[in-house]
Structure formats: C-alpha cells, structure tokens
Structures
1.
Amino acid sequence: MSILYSPETRLLTLRTAHSTYQMDIDEGGFLRHTYYGARADGADFRYLHRRYDRGFAGNPAERRNDRAFSLDNMPQEYTGFNAGDYRTPALCLVHADGSYAADLRYAGHEIRKGKYALPGLPAAFDRGGAAETLVVTLRDTASPLQIRLYYGVFEELDVIARATEIVNGGESAVYIEKAASACVDIPYGKWELLHFQGRHCMERQPERLPLGHDVQVVESRRGASSHHHNPFVIVCAPDAREYSGECYGFMPVWSGSHKTEVETDSLESVRVVTGFHESQFRWKLEPGESFFTPEVLLSYSAEGFSRLSRQYHDMIRYHICKSSYVGKPRKILINNWEATFMNFTTERLLNIARQAAALGVDLFVMDDGWFGARDTDDAGLGDWVVNERKLPGGLAPLIGELKKLGMDFGIWIEPEMVNEDSDLFRAHPEWVLKAPNRPPMYGRNQLVLDMTRADVRDYLYGCFSKLLRENDISYVKWDMNRSVSDVFSNALPAERQGEVPFRYTLGVYDLLERLTSEFPGVLFEGCAGGGGRFDAGMLYYTPQIWCSDDTDAIERLDIQYGTSFGYPPFTMGAHVSACPNQQTGRTTSMFTRGVVAMSGTFGYELDLNRLAQSEKEEVQLQIEAFRKVEPLLRNGDYYRLNELEDLGYYSAWEFAARDGSEALLNLVVKHVRANAPLINVRLKGLTPGASYRLDGSEETYSGAALMSGGYTFPMLWGDYPSMQLRFVRVE
Ligand code: GLA
C-alpha cells in the first residue's frame, strides 16, 4: 500500500520508496499539507505546524475568535482564493453572480488501484500495475462547485503525479480564470530555484537562483513549452549538488504555455504553484461539466540532482512515452536537412542515402521541402501533397530504392502551420488563428492553424493518415516552427475566446493521439525549431525530440547536459553534422561529434559523400560502436560526472547498466590548457566487488576502485579532444 488513511487522525499519507507526502483534514475540513520529504514511516507530521496570530491574516467565519487560525499561513494542498490566503492562488474562478471566491473544504476521498487517466490529456500510466490513485474531493462552502485532487503514486519510482478536476455541480455556468495542476507548500528550510532557460539554438541552460521574498516565475506565453523556459523546475537546498542535498522536481506534462510560480512569503514558507499559463485564459464551465488540468510529476531526492534526474528518466521512459519504440533498438538515421535544405530531388537524396547505407545507416529521413510549392519557407505549408517536380512519380520510387539499399524511410511534417502562399490558405483563410480586423503576426512567414477546430484537425488527420497508409513510412518528424500568437478562433463565440490557448494544445494532442494510435509502428520524433517543445506532454506521443537546431558538438554538450536534468538522454535527437559547423563555424573531430551524438538518439545530418575516406571509415566504426552500446544508452542509468562549475573546462558523463554489467564513460575537454590538472571522475553504478575490463585493452580495475578512486584520464590535447571508454564486468 502506498496510500494510507487513518480515520482516527484523518491523515492521508502517500509513501514512495524514499519519500513521504502527507496531508490532514482538520476539524473544519481544511485540507492541510503537513509534509513532503524523506521517507518517515508512521510519522504524524501535524506537530510541525504551530499556529500564532500573525496580524493581518484573516480568520474564517467559524474561527473568527481564533486569531491564530488563518489560511494565510497554513500549508495547503490546493488553495482557493479570496478566502483569507493572500499568497499565490492555485485557482481563480468567477461565479454566475460575478463573485470571485472559493473556500475549499474536504468532502471525501477515494483510494484505488492503478493510475488515474485524464481525458484528452497526456498523463503518466502504469505499466506493471503497481501505481495507486488517491482522489480527494473538496467542495466550495458557498457554491455547488467541487474540486477533485488526483494523486497517482509510483512508489518504486519516487514520483507522485498530481492533477486537478473542477466540477460544476450547479445550475449556472462559471468561468475559470486559473487552475493550477498542483500547489505544494514547503514551510521550512532554505531553498533555491534551478530552472532551465534558453533560446533557439541554446535550449535548457541551467540557472540557479536564490529565492527572495517575492514570486519567481518560470513561464512561457508562446503556446508551446518553448526554447526560452522549460516547464521543468527544481527547488533545491543551497548545498544541493549532483550527489548530495535535497531537491524537489516539478514537471508539468503539458506542451502549451505554462507557468510555475515560486513564492517565498514573509514567514519564509515557499509555495510552488504550477500548471498551464492563465494568460488570456477564461474557460466557461457549464453545469454538469468538468475541467481537467494537465498533470504535474513531483519527485523528491535527498541525494542530489543526479538521483532526481534518474527518477524522472525512469518515469518518462517507462510511464510517459507510450510508444512501442521504448522497448526497441533505434535505427541509425540520416537526415538531409543540413545537407540540402529544400533544394533536393529523388536522385540527390538517393546519392546521400547510398553512401549512408554503405556505411551502415539504416533509416533515411527526408526533411522539409518535399510537398506543395515548398522551395523556400515562404510557401507550401499546409499542402501535404508530394512535389513531383522534385520527386517524380511521388514517394514510391524513392522508398523503393531505399528499401533496396536496406533502408527504412522517414518524413518531415509541420501539421500545425500554414503559409498564406498555399492552396490550403487560399481555400480556408478562416482556418488560421487571427483576431478580426487586425493583420496577423508572422513567424518564418507562416501562420498558425486553428487547432481548436475539429474540421482543421480532420483535414490534417486526412492528409497524414493517407500519407502513412499509402506509403511505407516508419518515421515521422513532427515540427512546429513558430510561437503561437493572434489567439482567436473563428469557430468560437466571443465569450469562449479565452479557451483558445488551452484548446489549441488539446487539439494538437488530439491529432497526435489519433495518428500515433492508428500507426503504432511509426516512430514519431517531436521538434519545434529544434527543442522548442521539449516536454513530458510531447514525450507521451513522441519518444524522441530533436533536441536543438544547434548541431555543434560543443554547444550540444551544454544543451544535452541541461536537458538531462529532467529528460532521459535517449529522448534527445542528436546528430553528427558537417564541419565547420553550420551554426557556429567551429570544427571538431568526427570522433568528438560521435561521442556527443551518442548521448542521444544517434544519427547523421550531412552529405557523407563529402567526407574524406579516413572520416568515412571513422563513421563506420562509430556506427558499430553505437550498435554495441545502444541497449545501454536506451535502458541504462545516466550519471552526470561533473558539477555545473566544471562545465567550462570539460564535460563527463556515464551510462551504467542497471545490473552493473557494463558502463560507458564519456569525456569531452572543452578548453584544453597547457600543463593542466588531470581530470579524475568517479564512476557510478558498478558492482563494487567485481572487476571490470576496459574494452579493447587488457586493463582491469575493481568496481570499488573505479567508484571510490575514480578514473584518471590521460592528458589530452588539441581542439576539443574526447574519450569514450567502455568498462565490461568480468564474469
Ligand atoms: C526546424 C527543424 C529543423 C528542420 C527545419 C525545416 O528548424 O528544427 O531540423 O527540420 O525546421 O524547415
């Protein structure tokens, strides 16, 4: 049992392998949060919370003579608003009479086996049948409104999923203006915020900030989770490092605009409110209807970031990614984008494919430019018919030739977008998001389709299901190349325009759901100008996401490093590209490019014909090396072996098999210096009593030695040198 209820104490306790989460129902029905932290079986954490009259802290009507009782300083599970708590609310809604208030009290709870699901939304699922669900129902004291709090406990994974349902049990509509997935109060301790900011071509850079007495906000208003602020955040102790210190993770399973507010109040209590962004949001909830928020995955580690990351990695690999590819070896792909951009023909593609096949690549991906009048990015989006000028006879001749080479075929699409210069826009100008009487805002000269509309989604479903049904396609890259703006739908009345931002993302999920479930044999890769929509919501449908449009190996080290805090390396699309690199002009060795790309779903993005013979031979070796370690990269445990402050000098990381049978140690030196200190890293996840042979040599080391004394790399020199060492347990 991972969810316990005691009728005597009215305590609800959620237990995971290493954490305890507890709430209690007080005599007035307030659902108080008593504890979240290291596991403490049998504890009743109510003793932690002492009450004092703090002044200017309102008292509920029935406790008005008890001035020490105020919601303003009580840790809570889900906060109403305009009811005495002046801190950041989780909920905001307007009743039919125009009043704003919600005074939420316990009305019952239910504990059940298995993990709850959320209609129309991606959510973590149970694979082995071990998860349990708690649903706590709160009711508003003065209206027939109910709030259901969902908790999905994944005991072994140390993860608790949370989501919220708002039920209108009344006879008039209400308007929801904010509904967070969860609120978590951390009343004691000193904390910092670690979040992952960035930009196009430099996503998810860790930034660690002290918390002041204010509200720190991590948000995206772009209609996508964004390059700029990933929705995943960590609240950590000031002394937290990779392998020590307390930290809490908050990971929304949501791909649209998001917001996480971290408030430190005057009594030093920290509140985290997280979920979709309420900007431009106003949802009309009719009588009898429910509104479900996206879910958020909470996780706690008392042993630093590394452990927290591995908890999320397992959660995502096995309980978020629903694709059957999670359990299958990935093919090695070659993508033509950086080799040709939109300037290609069947013959030019085959020329790249032939060389790639000869070196061992087994999946060819045709990127943007294959459809409509798509010669530049000013035209063609929306017209999902093959451009026969470039591809005479359609896709069949190309796919047929690829099959003869032993290669599978993959294709690029960008379903959510349209160019004005397209047959689709000419036929349906009303299908784009655009406010009446205003020119739209352009991004890459394209407009955003109104994904809230069923007819738009049906059109897209028709195009892509036909494409997948009629052609032997085993991979799809689903791109999204601008931020959403002009959020107005022609299909909704004025009073429902505030639903468009949320419904847009629901529409994207609906189309993804239809296509991924109808074509389970197709590997879908997410993309948004690189990693502009890298989040757990997308990973539910697409088990890998193109990590960044920056393919420079040295830049990628930082991008993949930051991404790994929340997301498993094997979800990050990573390719070896040409040098000098197209984004930075930097030159790195083929070997270093391979080491970096092998920390993700490995592939190539260049014309291999242009390589020198010696480099081609290196590619062949790289492919052999990747195939050998692919199961380890896909299923192994990932360890970052350097702290943030070492990053300017080198980057080191390891994959270790869960049974300790092998480990892959990687190092890239970013800044070689003369007479430099030696780099020593301590390996993780080995069997202490076993000995390990360094693959390709006669050297052996004990597991204990590699973990306590570490491994000292030889002095490396030149530009961006790297090493990749495989240690194999001697059985
Ligand atoms: C985005 C992607 C690239 C490529 C182009 C095509 O920028 O991230 O990989 O597919 O679009 O237009």
2.
Amino acid sequence: MAAIEVRDLVKNYNGFPAVRGVSFSVEEGEVFGFLGPNGAGKTTTINILCTLLSPTSGHAFVNGYDCTGEPGRVRSSIGLVFQDVTLDGELTAYENLKFHCYLYNMTRRLTEERIEEMLAVVGLWERKDDFVKNFSGGMKRRLEIGRGLLHRPKVLFLDEPTLGLDPQTRFRIWQFIGGLKEKEGSTIFMTTHYMDEAEVCGRIAIIDNGRIIACASPGALKNSLKGDTVYLKTADDGRAQVELEGKFGLASKRLESGLKLIVPNGEKVIPKILSGLAVEVNEVNLKKPSLDDVFLHLTGREIRDEESAAGGERPKAERGRKRVARMIMR
Ligand code: ATP
C-alpha cells in the first residue's frame, strides 16, 4: 500500500484552477519532495492531503484512508508542520507540547518522555517554562516542528518547515527527521525552497501552474539535463577558443576571465582537452548540474525567489489568507 496516493486531483478557487489534474504516489518510508515556484499549487495539494481543504474533483488517500471520506482517520495518522506559526503564545513551550500529546491520547509517561526528548532536539529544554509569545521567530519554528513530530506520525507533512532558520538549526532538524525515518519508517512529504534539503529526498515532484512537470530522484533529474559545465582559464583564451572549436568541435563562451563550455560528460572531456590543447591551461573547473539548474530549466524560474531570499517572510495578506482558509476547514 502506498502511503500517499493522489489521482487526477483538481482544485478550483472560484473558477481559478490552482491544481489541474495531479497524480502521484508516495511509498511508505519514502522522503518525497514537492517543489515548485510560488503559486504553483503546493500548499493547496498539501492542504487537501491533510484534509484541510476539499478537492474540486479527483481522489487523495493517505495511509489508505480517503482524505474526503475519512478525514478523522487521516488526521490521526499524520503530522503537520506548516509555514505559519500555530502555537499558543499564552502557553509555555512545555504546555504547548503537552496539549498536543493530550489531543493524541498519549499516556502521561509517554508524554513526559517525548516532550523531554523533543525539547532537547529543538534546543529549547532550558526555555520550556517560558511563554511562547516571548520566543523569537526561529524558536517558535523549532517548537512547531518538534510538536509535529511528538506523536511519531506515519506520514509527516512539512510545508517549508525550516524557512528562515539558521543553518545549524536546519541541520539539527534534518538530522532528527532523517533518524525518525530510519527508526520509525515514517514517510515524509515536504516542500522547501532550500535545494540542499531537496537533495535528501528519494524522489522529487516538480509542480508548475498546477501540473506536475517532472517526478524522479534528484540524481535522475540532474542527469536529465545532460550537460556539465566546464570552466577553463588559459594563457590565451582567444586562441584556446579557436582550438576547442577546430580540434574538438566544442563551442565555448568567453567570460570576463576564461571560457565556459557545456559538455555531455565533463570527466571524460577534460583530460582530452588538457592533453590536446596547445595553449597552456592554468585552471579548470567542472560543475555538475544542480537541482537549481533543473528547476530553472523546467520552470524558467529560480527556486529561491525574492520572497525567500529576503529572509523567508511571506507577504502578510498571503499568510493571512492561508491561515484563515485553514481555520475555516478545521
Ligand atoms: P507558495 O510557494 O507561494 O506557498 P504554492 O505553490 O503553495 O505557493 P498555493 O498556495 O497552493 O501555491 O496557490 C496556488 C494558486 O492558488 C495561487 O495562484 C494562489 O494565489 C491561489 N490560491 C491559493 N489559495 C487561494 C484561495 N483561498 N483563494 C483564491 N486563490 C487561492
């Protein structure tokens, strides 16, 4: 049984097609990345999977339960970490987590054990008795992620969970999530704008304008570009350019300093160039395609847009709209 099964999913907002016939499945224990530019339909799809939103048509199943027909069963088998903070500022960190354990019917002993473990993981044990309203944005985010993991869900949904966190905290959180997958076999469904996080996925689906335009492992996606970039710095770039064309049939581009070539297999081409060129080569660099390159190639846009590059804050109206939609669905 697939952990997540989506068939021909469609969501229209007042006639606007946000999701236009999406199908995919996620195996148990898989880390599945869902990437796309802003407005591509990621959050809408996640909200349907988490039973916060009803689809216009199509089907979605999580842990074998129908997201439309069996929302209660879906909810009890998943964990959610969203972009927006949903903690209660008037409660302490410990109380926020305790409340979550209570909702999931966890025993008192398990509650204490898990809260202690989780507060240590997210680095907030020392602050457990402080009111959340006095926490920084990063601290709230860490606590939110810890809360989503408390009941060890079979499927964990992470919608840009580490947005705006410092690299050290991101590293610790991913280390923990990786461990959770190993220990508990949890399935992880995530969106992110950080490409290093997307690299941890077994497979990645790229969604654009409400449609999935690619779905494969990070390696396969990168290989699909079929082009390595080679940077050369020589004693005479003009002459080297002529030689590359004449001897190897390789077109190159003059940079401010050096040459740039796109070749199918850099490791094989570089030794031939080095031994075949009469011009002295001073420096050579090989760049394999990255997931950023794949994303740019497929969508025509950079994954890290101005919004996330500016510190991870979403426009207020947008955040408000999503939060209100979620509250209504609850
Ligand atoms: P982001 O990366 O910015 O979070 P996303 O891929 O999660 O984007 P969605 O939030 O799913 O995209 O939005 C998909 C499209 O649907 C966008 O054009 C968005 O403006 C629109 N949309 C989302 N929610 C609503 C709503 N409640 N009412 C009307 N339009 C909406």
